[in-house]
Amino acid sequence: MDADEGMKIAFDVGEIPANFDYDAPPTTGIEYLHRVKLEKRKCPRVVVSNIDKTKYLSRQTVTIEEHNGFIYAPPGYEPDPDWKEEQLELFSNNKAYMSGNRAHLREKFAQKIVPKIHKYEEWSLYCLGSDKHRLLCNKHDSESSNAMAAEESKKSRFENIVCEPNPPLLSVMLYLSQRKIIKLLSYHINWLEGLGFSHTQGEWLYALLVALEKPLEPDTCSLLRNLSRICSQLRCNINSSDHEFVKPLNLILSIISEYFDQIDMSDNFIDNKWK
């Protein structure tokens, strides 16, 4: 995998020599891999099969409209192309710096104590603070009239706690495994859907996306697509294009569509404009 694509190098074959003979057959395994690397660069990023669909129209019996759930930006809400390019470059640089300097950064930033990854309620308090946590609890109570005794006991342990949200510091993010990153991302998607957007959650979502590595597992890809749907819905519900949440929501949407290759979850994807 290429380092410039934000992925870990699985097997480093080094740079292709300047005097590399492209016509001679490979004599070593490294020379063969150099040729594979060259062939990869010639391949288009996206390949679409050119199929004549008209010959199947006479046999069409059922028409199913497929929509990915992404809501195209209202006029004036879409990100400025120059701003978008600048932010994506900054995001890529942040990922490269964190990935390439992890050992050095760990020496500089000691590990901070955080909740165990399965402690959903404690992470809610840690990331969002006590005020948002209570809102989540109240929302849960209003949706469920038969709360279990264990849940009631758990809630009582936290209801008197007053705390501010904790930012996603390097002393936390550097020590989270990919499994924990993905789990925490799923928590934040639930909270985003339940509470709406806030700058606190925006910081955490950005930090988690910086820490998330490619290639994506199918379940992780599904998480990101769900996050994109929710963010596009939240953006659509904002009354003014000058609202302070428009840019951070656009940033998250741009990162998912451009960096993580979910190109159909984008304002530029033509099918979204039609629908």
Q: What would you say about this model in short?
A:
The chain has eleven helices and no strands. With 275 residues, the protein is an all-alpha fold. Helix 2 (81-100) crosses helix 10.
Which key terms come to mind for this protein?
275 residues, mainly alpha
What does this structure look like?
It comes from Nephila pilipes (Giant wood spider). Its main location: cytoplasm. Helix 7 runs antiparallel to helix 8 and helix 9 runs antiparallel to helix 10 (246-259). This protein is mainly α. Helix content is 54%, strand content 0%. The longest helix is centred in the middle third of the chain and has 24 residues, at 120-143. The protein is globular, with a radius of gyration of 23 Å. The chain has helices at residues 29-42, 81-100, 102-108, 120-143, 149-158, 170-173, 178-195, 199-211, 218-236, 246-259, 270-274. The model is unreliable at 145-150 (pLDDT under 50). The protein contains eleven helices and no strands.
β-strand amount: under 5%
What is the rounded Rg? 23 Å
Sketch the major β-sheet.
none
Low-pLDDT residue spans? 145-150
Average pLDDT value? 85
Secondary structure tally: strands: 0
The residue fraction in helices comes out at 40-55%
Series of H and E elements: HHHHHHHHHHH
Topology:
Layout: H1 29-42, H2 81-100, H3 102-108, H4 120-143, H5 149-158, H6 170-173, H7 178-195, H8 199-211, H9 218-236, H10 246-259, H11 270-274
Helix pairs in contact: 2-10, 4-7, 7-8, 7-9, 8-10, 9-10
InterPro entries: GEMIN2, Gemin2/Brr1
Protein name: Gem-associated protein 2
Subcellular location: Cytoplasm
